[in-house]
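Entry 12.
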Amino acid sequence: MKIDQTDERLIGMAATAGAYLLWGILPLYWKLVNLVSPFEILAQRITWSFFFMVLILLSTRKLRSFLGELYEISFKLKKLSGIAIASLLISVNWLTYIWAVNSNHIIETSLGYYINPLVSVLLGVIVLKERLSFWQMVSFFLAMLGVLNLTFHFGSFPWVALVLAITFGLYGLCKKMIHLGAITGITLETLLVTPLALLYLNYVHNNGVGFFGFAHPGISGLLAGAGVVTAVPLILFASGARRLPLSTMGFLQYIAPTIALFLGVFIFHEPFTAVHMVSFTFIWAALTVFSLARTRAFIQLESVLLKNNIFQRFSSGKN
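Predicted 3D structure (C-alpha cells):
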C-alpha cells in the first residue's frame, strides 16, 4: 500500500516525538540503577548497545552489508579516525549525563541540551566556515547572558551543561563529516569502544565490586536493558529525520530537555531558584529567536533593523 506525503509526515512526527520523549524520560531509567557507579553503567550501556545493534542488523538482514561497509572503512584512515573520535565523544557525553542524573544535576543536563543547537551552529561557523545570520548572533548573545548569569550568581561554571552541549555538538559534527547512517554509525561507534568496556567490566567483577550478576537480578536486567533504551530512540530519530524537514526537527528537539527540566524540578525536587528562572528565560528567548530566524516576519524585521542601522555591530559582518 502506497503511503502519501501527509501520512509520511505524520509517521515522521510520531517517530521523532517518540525519540525525544524517550530521551526526556531517560533520567528515570538511570535513577533506577543509581547504586551502580557511572563508569560501570557506561560500560554496560556500551556493551549491550553493541549487542542490541547486532541483533537489529541480523533481524533486518543488513549484517552482511554492514560487514562489507566495515571492511571498506578499515582502509580509510580518515573515516576510521572520525568514527573513533565520535565514539570517544559520545562515551564522554553518556558518562557525564549518567553522572549528572544520579548526582542530582538533572536541571543542568536540561540546560545543556537547550544550549546544544546553538553550540552546533557555532561549530559550523568555526569548522565548516558557515556564516552567522543577524538573528543567530542575537541568539548567541542571549544564551551567553543566561550562562553568565548562572556563573556569576552561583560562583561556579555550569560545566555539566557545557560538557554535554559541546560533546554532543562535536559528535554531531563528526557524524556530518563521516556520512554514516544511524544504525551503521552507532554499531561502529560501540564496536570500537566495546573491548575497552569489557576490559573494565572484567576488572570490576574480578574485584568483587560489580553489580551485574545473579546477586542483583533486578539491577542486572536494567543494565542489560540499557542497550534497548539507547538504540530505540536512535532508530525512531533516524526514521523521523528521513521524513521531516529540519525546521520541524528543530522544534521537536526541545521536548527532551523540557521533560528533563520538569523531572528535575517536580519529581526529584532539585533547587530551581529565581537565578535559574532568569537564566533559563534567556536560553528560551535565544532558542525562540533561533527557531524563528528563517520565518518571513523575522526576515522582514531584520531587513528593517539593518536598513535603519540598528544593532550595527551585528550587521557589520554581512555582505
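Annotation: Residues 77-102 form the longest helix (26 residues). Confidence is low (pLDDT under 50) at residues 314-319.
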